[in-house]
Amino acid sequence: MKKVVVILVPVLLIGGVVGAAFTGAIKIPGITPKAKLAANLYGEGTDLYAPDADAELKIDATLEPIEPTPPPVAKKPEEEPEVPEPVLDPELGAKKLAKVWNALSTEDLMAVSSTFKDDELALVLSKMEVEKVAALVGEMEPKRGASVSRQLARIASVVPEES
């Protein structure tokens, strides 16, 4: 019981002092609210019928003409330099495709090469191993095989330029 009294009495005293300070009964700097002016409490000082109430407010101000500023101009987006399209080298592409096709079986080559045009197919076949080309041309329809063979002969007959 003594502990309760020892704890509660100081808490109640501190609470009472702070409460009195907030209401203004006790003046404690930082806690006590500022005193309100007595004239404002009762409406004095805001008399509508005072002699100066009808007087107009005179303002002595000179206005200088302000030059209108032009509206902000939207910035043009910087033009990106045109990137030239890469130069395609059909010979290099045919060499790389020939390396892949050399690893395929003849049946797989027949399926893959069926969608190629004869001149495109002949360019790739000219870069492949001779045994694979012979096996593939032997499996083709005779008409297409003859056309591809003619294209191969045309490609093989081109004399390379000396530099």
List the main descriptive attributes of the protein structure presented here.
mainly alpha, 163 residues, elongated
Topology, please?
Layout: H1 2-23, H2 38-41, H3 90-102, H4 106-113, H5 118-125, H6 130-139, H7 142-156
Instruction: Using the alpha-carbon principal axes, give the shape.
Output: elongated
Q: Report the end-to-end length measured between terminal Cα atoms.
A: 114 Å
Number of strands: 0
Residue-averaged pLDDT, rounded?
83
Low-confidence segments, given as residue ranges, are none
Looking at how many chains there are and whether they match, the oligomeric state comes to single chain
Q: What order do the SSEs take from the amino end to the carboxyl end, as H and E?
A: HHHHHHH
Taking the sheet with the most strands, its summary is: none
Q: What can you tell me about this protein's structure?
A:
- This protein has 163 residues and is mainly alpha-helical.
- Among the domains are: 1-37; 90-156, no CATH class.
- It has helices spanning 2-23, 38-41, 90-102, 106-113, 118-125, 130-139, 142-156.
- The chain is elongated and about 115 Å long.
- The N and C termini lie far apart (114 Å).
